[in-house]
Amino acid sequence: MAERATLVDWALHWEQASPDKVYFTQPMGDGVLKELTWKQALHEARRMAAHLKSLDLPAKSHIALCSKNCAWWIIADLAIWLADHISVPLYPTLTAETTRAILEHCEAKLLFVGKLDMWTAMKEGVPEGMPQIRFPLHPKDAEGEDWDAVIAKHEPLKETPKRTREELATIVYTSGSTGMPKGVMLSFGAMLDASLAVGRVLSVTADDRMLSYLPLAHVFERWLVECSSLAAGFHVFFAESLDTFLKDLQRARPTLFVSVPRLWLKFQMGILKKMPPKKLDLFLKIPILSWIVRRKILKALGLQDARFAGSGSAPIPPELITWYRKLGLELLEGYGMSENFAYSHMTKPGHARPGYVGECWDGVEHRISSAGEVQVKSPATMMGYYKLPEKTEEVITEDGYLCTGDRGEIDADGRLKLTGRVKELFKTSKGKYVAPAPIENKLVGHPAIEQVCVGGSGYPAPHALVMLSDDARKEMADPAAKATLDASLQEHLATINKQLDHHEMLQFLAVVKDSWQIENGFLTPTMKIKRQTVEDTYTSLSDEWYATKKKVVWQA
User: Fold this and answer.
1) Structural domain tally of the chain?
2) Residue 538: is it exposed, middle or buried by C-beta count within 10 angstroms (0-12/13-18/19+)?
3) For the whole model, what pTM was predicted?
4) Helices 287-301 and 277-284, interaxial angle, to 10°?
5) How does pLDDT run across 389-404, given as a tens digit for each residue?
6) Please, where are the H alpha helices in 142-187?
């Protein structure tokens, strides 16, 4: 194992050790599935690497990847590394402006274009003359050479390049919740150490299975799916689309499954729509019936074989973790950043504490600064921000700790609790500071609420902007249903306010008409709220809403 210093070495190991084992199961549309073994996947990677070598690009050139998750995303990443270059992933939902800004900032020499829904808008951001290669799954209006045609022209690269732990492997641009994304530089060593640690702690083996559907351009998915599969040799299934997601999940029957709070909430809403909470709670209290019901629900979700399930990218309500535990699914909450390849904290099996994101991973240290900020020292800490040395100095202390920008506290057992973002604190007109995140986490416990944004800077008391779930929004056409929900939201607000300090108590909930989505700019590609965008959209209505004195107001 000592000689396998990078994930490239591990990929080449599985090519030799398990050549005929299926690595990828890729939906191709119309019910067609394509399977690629380790030998086949590396064969394509070697051919593409030979093509990249033939272009005579400077060593360590930056090559961009823009696609939704698919087998060729990972194969292209390997090809870039095999050809002695550096990969730069782009989120598949960027605007043309951000696409251009990233491609120009990183000085990309070539762009891989793959499975995309928004390419027509994004392609306007591709600099003129930039070479492009299209994955087998690509938009009709994508330009450039076809993947299959390119690899057909080349024999597989025979030499085995020796990439080192200290080398720059990839530049990951942050999701941009606070402006222009920054390029996080990650080394081969950082990516490998984080991936091997997952295998040790969760006993991951080549017999495991995962479904890949969260953006591979984000470190959370890239670490736990791409990099961990390269290190452990397990089978990766890909989701085809949102419409087929449940079928894709049932096909994969993942033994390891990670998601984001919004999807865990949607799963819960779907279950409770078919089985009311009181009925489900009753069934779960009856010993024999409880086992049958839990098994049936998990099988319907495709999670009957899940050894571990995880949640990350944003805070998850403790009540939701408790609810899934009743179904026999232990949700392990995780915490990390692009700047440390998400290798920071995780709830250890059997050691969970609701409301806490868990303990440090192996080799990670944490502390709380005098200002209440969480600071983390990780083996996977970035090399720095690309072309931004001043920004790098701002976030990495002299003794190597990353300043996360999150506020938090650590319990006696070393478990971390996040209490909000340092920069998200706002002051009411009474001079009191309010941290919105913990309040938002409480509010999403209502079954009709899907997204929340707490604000109120400069007002006597804070308020909450609320986006309803799709099902709840549809029911609002019925006046009786709307009146019932209004009363329920008022009751929910009263319950939450009793749990808050006096200066945190919300004056009202404002139910908005818009659906906050990635596509319309309200959410980042990892489904975090773009707080400034949300607040700017509704700020002109704030005075009117405060003046109503109502506990629940509905956007006209």
Assistant:
1) 2
2) middle
3) 0.82
4) 120
5) 999 999 999 999 999 9
6) 147-152
